[in-house]
């Protein structure tokens, strides 16, 4: 398949979309014609979530990839999510509509430095959050996501020393709820670290009956104000099932799209980051029941993926995710361990 000349190897210039086409129906037509499955994370823009075959959190996306019969997997998410698909499905063509969609958390843990850290602590088992590169996973005993981290950590005997990387906030949270003392890699997500305690406190005063939903990648000060701490899927499930009507959502604001779709009668308020300006435009339109927010906290990497790029990636079957075989054969072991433990535990 020829790649468009306007796309450089690393950089991305979106090929112009032909005039007069209905982008959404063309995407669906191409996906069917090519037997491609479109997977999307909850942090991508709403239009992508609506067109995808499957929307989920990191665990569900990996589980979906492992069982798909499609010939092509299109990952509307970030690079490490595409790598996980490629590791699990080496014979399939795995595409990320913008190859530059990386992840600050994964980038905070380069494989060579992580390997040196692991080697400095012999006798430790190594647990890595799924938000890592394939090369870092190759130094790992078992991968976790925020949906299963607690249960997987607890599956190790109490006396087993553990290393946890790369997210220091998730690691500290898991230490606090399990009583473990895992050694933590000092990494973080730039989106979750920038939520403002002050702004959350002000919103709590304004909405005293609201529940605070927090992703475990947030800092301790934010987590201390949470009613519920969980993965994107866990926060969504809680919001839909709860008797409460109003929620302050402390994670990437893309999740509000699904929350509003699944609980249209409820009010979801995105908590702003430290550096937000009141005058900032909001990507999420307000409705009568859901006040317009002016300071959504978005992941700039997730937001690189657009409908136009999805269309082009289906059209040209590019850009593909590749994982060197010597890395893949090591990285698949901790990913499969995670999937097996999750299945055993019904997660
Ligand atoms: P989830 O596993 O909760 O979907 O989180 C993924 C992620 O990137 C969080 O920043
Ligand atoms: Fe990575 Fe943070 Fe974006 Fe999640 S929100 S993909 S952890 S940079």
What percent of residues adopt helix (DSSP H or I)? 25-40%
Can you identify the CATH superfamily of the largest domain?
A: NadA-like
Number of strands: 12
Distance between the termini: 38 Å
> What low-confidence regions span 5 or more consecutive residues with pLDDT below 50?
279-292
* Category from helices, strands and their pairing: alpha/beta
Q: How would you describe the shape?
A: globular
Q: What's the overall average pLDDT, rounded? A: 92
CA-atom Rg in angstroms: 20 Å
What are the secondary-structure elements, in order, as H or E? HEHEHEHEHHEHEHEHEHEHEHEHEHH
The CATH first-level class of the largest domain comes to: Alpha Beta
Describe the strand arrangement of the main beta sheet, using strand numbers: 2-1-3-4
Oligomeric state of the chains in view: single chain
Largest sheet: 4 strands, parallel
Bound compounds: 1,3-dihydroxyacetonephosphate, iron/sulfur cluster
* SS strand fraction: 5-15%
Number of domains: 3
CATH architecture of the largest domain: 3-Layer(aba) Sandwich
Describe this entry's structure for a reader.
The chain is α/β, with parallel strands linked by helices and 347 residues long. It has three domains: 7-100 and 302-316, Rossmann fold, CATH 3.40.50; 105-189 and 337-344, 3-Layer(aba) Sandwich (Rossmann fold), CATH 3.40.50.10800; 192-283, Rossmann fold, CATH 3.40.50. Helix content is 39%, strand content 13%. The chain contains 15 helices and twelve strands. It has helices at 23-33, 46-51, 58-67, 79-88, 104-107, 111-120, 134-137, 149-154, 168-178, 197-206, 220-223, 232-241, 255-262, 307-316, 325-344, and strands spanning 36-41, 54-56, 72-76, 93-95, 125-129, 142-144, 162-165, 183-184, 211-214, 228-229, 246-250, 267-270. Mean pLDDT is 92; it is low at 279-292.
């Amino acid at each position: 398949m020829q790649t468009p000349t306007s796309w450089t190897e690393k950089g991305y210039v979106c090929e112009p979309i032909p005039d007069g086409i209905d982008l959404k129906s063309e995407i669906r037509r191409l996906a069917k014609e090519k037997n491609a499955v479109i997977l999307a994370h909850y942090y991508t823009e709403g239009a992508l979530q609506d067109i995808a075959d499957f929307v989920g959190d990191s665990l569900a996306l990996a589980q979906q990839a492992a069982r798909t019969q499609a010939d092509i997997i299109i990952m509307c998410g970030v690079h490490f999510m595409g790598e996980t698909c490629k590791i699990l499905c080496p014979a399939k063509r795995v595409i990320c509509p913008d190859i530059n969609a990386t992840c600050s958390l994964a980038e905070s843990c380069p494989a060579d430095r992580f390997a040196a850290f692991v080697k400095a602590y012999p006798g430790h088992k190594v647990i890595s959050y799924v938000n890592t590169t394939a090369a870092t996973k190759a130094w790992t005993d078992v991968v976790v996501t925020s949906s299963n981290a607690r249960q997987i950590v607890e599956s190790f005997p109490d006396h087993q020393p553990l290393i946890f990387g790369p997210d220091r906030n998730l690691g500290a949270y898991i230490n606090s709820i399990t009583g473990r003392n895992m050694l933590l890699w000092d990494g973080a997500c730039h989106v979750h670290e920038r939520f403002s305690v002050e702004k959350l406190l002000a919103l709590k005063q304004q909405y005293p009956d609201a529940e605070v939903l927090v992703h475990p990648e947030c800092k301790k000060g934010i987590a201390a104000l949470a009613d519920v701490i969980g993965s994107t899927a866990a926060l969504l499930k809680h919001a839909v099932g709860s008797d409460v009507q109003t929620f302050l959502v402390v994670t990437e604001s893309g999740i509000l799209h699904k929350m509003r779709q699944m609980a249209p009668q409820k009010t979801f308020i995105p908590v702003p980051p430290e550096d937000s300006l009141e005058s900032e435009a909001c990507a999420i339109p307000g409705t009568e029941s859901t006040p317009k927010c002016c300071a959504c906290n978005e992941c700039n990497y997730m937001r690189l993926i657009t409908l136009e790029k999805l269309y082009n990636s289906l059209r040209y079957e590019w850009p593909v995710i590749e994982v060197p075989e010597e890395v893949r054969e090591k990285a698949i072991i901790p990913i499969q361990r995670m999937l097996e433990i999750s299945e055993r535990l019904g997660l």
